[in-house]
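SEQUENCE-TO-STRUCTURE ENTRY
===========================
Question of interest: how does this chain fold, as expressed in backbone structure tokens?
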Amino acid sequence: EVQLVESGGVLVQPGGSLRLSCVASGFTFRNYWMHWVRQAPGKGLEWVSSIHTGDGYTNSADSVKGRFTISVDNTKNILYLQMNGLKSEDTALYYCTAGFASWGQGTQVTVSS
């Protein structure tokens, strides 16, 4: 059974930093597409960033480029999202997903002063 467990979401001030983690189990983590997707209050799902766990190829939405960095630790089956320069519009529930087929429960990030 695929399991994805996110953590790291908290209340942070504008301009602050956070690192989200997603521990994956139940599937072959290596050579897989992993993604971060978020949902702001009252809005739909928004793709944030993707990484191929085999070759390390990454891509991110324009709204987060230069501020967020996606990475993986293949030895521990963990997906990360380093978030710097946080803005109020980054407030959302952040989901980790394996191939957009399996999803975690989400971790809440709130950016507010």
Observations:
- The chain has no helices and eleven strands.
- The chain has a mean pLDDT of 96.
- Residues 39 and 45 are 5 Å apart (CA to CA).
- The first strand starts at residue 3 and ends at 7.
